[in-house]
Amino acid sequence: MSDVPQPDYARNMRIIGHSDQGGRPDGVQIMVHRGYAYIGHMFSKGFSVVDVRDAKHPRAVNYLPAPANTWNIHLQTHDDLLLVINAKACSPPPSSPTRRPTTKAS
């Protein structure tokens, strides 16, 4: 398993498989349910579905993009339901310097 990335820090753990999440390495939350991993992405703005029934050889099977101006950084499974939150995506700060509020002297 030499092609599997090795962690810098790990104790009492053994890596058995690796997935690049369909080329989207920005996974922020994962839920595993009935042999599939559901992975929310911050920068790819959507979520991936990875078949993990064979833990040594996980494979990306789907990617669903989030609606415009949202991202999927939180998801939850229960029974046959998958709850995906379409949160408003944060925008980068403006490039202009921050202005302090002005006050009038009384």
Main beta-sheet annotation:
4 strands, antiparallel
Order of secondary-structure elements:
EEEEEE
Task: Give the distance, in angstroms, between the N- and C-terminal Cα atoms.
Answer: 73 Å
Unreliable spans: none
Main-sheet strand order equals 1-2-3-4
How many H/I helical runs?
Answer: 0
Mean pLDDT: 84
What is the radius of gyration computed over CA atoms, rounded to a whole number of angstroms?
19 Å
- Structural class comes to mainly beta
Helix content: under 10%
How many β-strand stretches? 6
Beta fraction: 35-45%
Query: What does the overall shape look like?
Result: globular
If you had to describe this structure to a student in words, what would you say it looks like?
The chain is built from no helices and six strands. With 106 residues, the chain is an all-beta fold. It has a domain at 27-88. A four-stranded antiparallel beta sheet has the order 1-2-3-4, with no helix packed on it. A two-stranded antiparallel ribbon has the order 5-6. The chain is globular, with a radius of gyration of 19 Å. The model has no long low-confidence stretch (mean pLDDT 84).
Quick summary:
With 106 residues, the chain is an all-beta fold.
Primary descriptors:
about 110 residues, mainly beta, two-stranded antiparallel ribbon, 6 strands
Protein topology:
Blueprint: E1 27-33, E2 36-41, E3 46-51, E4 59-65, E5 70-78, E6 81-88
